[in-house]
Amino acid sequence: MRGLTVLMVLAASLVATSPRAALAQQPPAAILGVEITMNQPEASIGDRVLLTLRIRHRSDVAVTATPEAPLDVEFGKQNVTTLALPDGVVQTTVTWTVQPFVLGPVGLRAFPVAWVTQDGRTGRFLVQPPRFVVQPVRTADDVLLRPLKDPVAVPGGPPAWLRPALYSLAAVASLALVATLLWFLVRQVRVLLGRRHGGPIMAPIPVVITAESSARESLDDLAGIRLTDSNAFEQYYGTIAFVVRRYLSDRIGFNAHALTTDELERRMTANGVDRWQARLVGGLLERCDSAVYAHRFPDPASADHDLTVAYEIVELSRPGAPLIGVLPRGATA
Predict the structure, then answer these.
(1) pTM of this prediction?
(2) According to CATH, what is the number of the domain 31-134?
(3) DSSP three-state, residue 96
């Protein structure tokens, strides 16, 4: 059974105090519990403090959060793990390594956590990290200069032959680069001479346009549209529906433009697409039809989310798409 696959994009940055858990904004029904902690209340300049966010949710929900680091605080790459609990829920744990480079109390701003379900419902809520204090390593009246410590000898250093071998490898790579440039120049000279003397001209290498690149390029054009009137909404949602149907026709191998939304869901399922992915496509196309034909227009934030869902449909349907997101109960990572 394939794992649940969902991608989301969110950001907002923050800092907090005290290692006790900081409470989040009241989470929605899909989220069963939220806890965010720091592993230590005090640190020094450059120390690594571990920020941990634990979210308990239903097994059909995926969550994500990406804080934006302030100028004086550095965030390391996030680490995400999921755990199926005995009571049938899933716990997603996200950790960041935080390095402060400013003295005094450090408080990160609350940042959003986004969630999405298999049937395309989404939402977000805020979590507030705890505060912590960065202590100076010397007293305020300590102004004396001290000599640097002797370099620390690290055992198990690289062998003596490694440096000459790296130099030799760099020389070989440089020679290969020079040979490639010379070959390219000779080839270009031959082409120019062939044109001057009426000889055959080498045809340029065609650029391969895939279904994914074509769909993404069409969706990228929608990013600059301002949804200020009905014509803009109709163009926006009409383009999303056309691009999604064209992409599914190219990728799965049937004429998606000739099918209704219900027929398209059944045809996708019959062609081996997961049922919840087919429902995700059907839900998006129904919202597109509602905007284009019934003139029921959502708010701009929901319209931006629908564009994100269209990107995710392209990502989920491409060959060899990685299985990421929340694993169902009983599955293994």
Answers:
(1) 0.38
(2) 2.60.40.10
(3) strand
